[in-house]
Amino acid sequence: MKKILFILVLFFSLNSFSQTFFVDKTDSQKAGVPVKIEVEQTINYIIKAKLAELGKEVINDKSKSDYIVKPVLIRKSGYAKSAKGYIAFLKTDSGEEVLRSQIDKGMRNAFQGMKNPFVLCFDRIITKQFPRLLPLLD
Description:
Blueprint: H1 2-16, E1 20-23, H2 37-53, E2 57-58, E3 67-75, E4 83-91, E5 97-100, E6 104-106, H3 117-133
């Protein structure tokens, strides 16, 4: 009986320290270009998948999360010009930015399978920077 009680207490205490994340829509005001719904969904999907892969909990209720993950697009792509963006981590209760990835870029090319530049930009940030960034959050 004591073993079961100990295991339950340990389980609940570990879960109480886990961080929860809400993935917000891509902010593209600085770039001055709207992001298509399919691109938005792809960006959100790859962020959620990477968070889950790294053992983080992703929830759909913004008010109940600890952090808001917000992709920010700062430059649209064009002829011989790459898209640029970063991912910001905001504290849900205050809305304060607590962490930001480095700015990365993405450009459509045949070597990347003609992937959308916005998706490519955020995919690079997620695969290269997330494993180093997430441990920096409290």
